[in-house]
Design a protein that fits this description.
2 copies of one chain form a homodimer.
Chain A (H helix, E strand, L loop, with lengths): L2 H19 L7 H11 L6 H12 L4 H23 L8 E2 L2 E2 L1 H4 L2 H26 L3 H15 L4 H11 L7 H27 L3 H33 L6 H4 L5 H5 L1 H17 L7 H15 L3
Helix pairs in contact in A: 1-4, 2-6, 3-4, 3-9, 3-14, 4-6, 4-9, 6-7, 7-9, 8-9, 9-10, 10-13, 13-14
Chain lengths: 297, 297
């Protein structure tokens, strides 16, 4: 089995849970349809896979951590729905289909996002009741996720990103901070809460957090690079055209080659936090980290 | 001290906590400003006051339950910000000031709402860590709040309300269900989670829930009545003009007098769930329930 097959197998396991996790909670039909339209639109399920892999690496059971895995995907999905809104990035398409507010309407899209965010906390808080996880662990994990998703994390990062748009000459440090909040925080929280739920000690939780933080940055740099490289290959747009759109990116700020090498450095740093572990989950996380940066080499 | 003085004293106690509860969490300045603009815009603080009164009635400490009290106000505030958006009710004013998206901009208002909702769960999950409440109680209370605020509760109710707008002849039963979700669920959850946090037994928690459910309905009926009566008095609009706006209300569906008497019935039913208790918190809750309906008599 290749790494990509294994990633697909794990994503399919998450998918199976996602398909039913919003049901049976009294949600009006059209709202549920809208929430599931976006939640079940595919995607790599990176965040849930990270929750489960770190949980498994440190001795946790997949079944028990699954509500958290699903919650992180719910939160990620809500952020995409709200980011696509006309008042935000105004995107009509998402994953090759009409974005939520195009398929439904703006009010429904706002509420679908609000619903997914709230249901995420419903799922997480039920993990103790229905899965028998210790309440203090679950509570700590919820606190980590709330901090990462909130105004000092993902939501704050999106606010800063909106302020950056159209502004030229954003310093690299500010760009890094924005990305650490907007995308990095939730990726980090995925690893960290997987570790917390397993009952691991502080040193292990710290490794999970640092692994997450580093692949989060690498992931963002690679995303920026693929924007440029992808465009050049498929549309023939010149390298650096994102800059003209008023968007600060790593390639725009430091060039393509330096960006690639920086992404590799972050992945290498992430891998140091895996070096003390063994077994299939360690192997999987190692390859996942490598996979992020391999896409641009 | 009159009941209104006592209500004001309790609201001021909540206010003191609200003023600082969003600080120190790394929120970008403008986003924090926007969140606090709406959170600190006054209001009766009904939900926090209910949390604390039920908590106190059943032996809980105010200081420990305060993060939950604040969280319920954060959730209520976020719902008002999102409801006011152009895609929803499109209201330019809220409590006599520009609504959030008018004072800031639409993107900021969406994110301020998202931030308040997420921070609410951050505050609640920290209540065990910083206030020493038992984790299982806190987790159960979070689960109750998430259920009430989510797609099967408040968010779902707003979705149904949007579907109702402009539709004539909405049956009374459907109107009741919509209100029970949109406003009733969070009021009920306020009472219930106050009881849960105090460590009360199931019978007490059930009383809190039923008290909340009944005053929630009464509160909505009175709101509908005040829309009509208030308008007639101040603007000279005829009774029933809301009907012309395509909005189903209790007075429109059953007339003013029958609505008043129905509100009174719900308050009387609520009071039966207080009859077994004694002391200052019982007295306060009793008067609070009476106060709701007294406004239209």
């Amino acid at each position: 089995m290749t790494f990509k097959d294994e990633l697909g197998r794990r994503a399919a396991e998450v998918e199976e849970y996602l398909v039913t996790c919003l049901r049976g909670r009294g949600t009006p039909a059209r709202l549920l349809e809208s929430m599931e339209y976006s939640l079940l639109a595919g995607g790599k399920r990176l965040r849930p896979v990270l929750v489960l892999a770190w949980n498994g690496l440190l001795g946790g059971e997949t079944d028990k951590a699954m509500p958290f895995a699903a919650s992180l995907e719910c939160i990620h999905t809500y952020s995409l729905i709200h980011d696509d809104l006309p008042a935000m990035d105004d995107d009509d398409l998402r994953r090759g289909r009409p974005s939520n507010h195009k398929q439904f309407d703006e009010a429904t899209a706002i509420l679908a996002g609000d619903g997914l965010l709230t249901e995420a906390f419903g799922l997480m808080s039920a993990a103790s009741i229905f899965k028998g996880l210790p309440a203090d662990r679950v509570l700590r994990a919820i606190h980590v996720v709330a901090g990462a998703a909130g105004a000092g994390g993902m939501v704050g990062g999106q606010a800063v990103d909106m302020e950056f748009t159209g502004r030229t000459g954003v310093p690299l440090e500010e760009l890094k901070t924005m990305h650490a909040m907007k995308t990095g925080a939730l990726i980090t929280a995925s690893c960290e809460c997987g570790a917390i739920l397993s009952g691991a000690d502080e040193a292990d939780i710290d490794n999970a957090r640092r692994f997450g933080r580093n692949i989060g940055v690498a992931f963002q740099i690679v995303d920026d690079i693929l924007d440029v490289v992808g465009d050049t290959a498929t549309l023939g747009k010149p390298v650096g055209s994102d800059e003209a759109m008023g968007k600060s990116t790593y390639p725009a700020l430091m060039g393509l080659e330096k960006s690639k090498s920086l992404a590799k450095d972050y992945v290498d740093e992430a891998l140091t936090h895996l070096s003390g572990y063994f077994g299939s989950e360690q192997e999987f996380l190692w390859q996942l980290a490598r996979y992020i940066v391999d896409r641009v080499y």
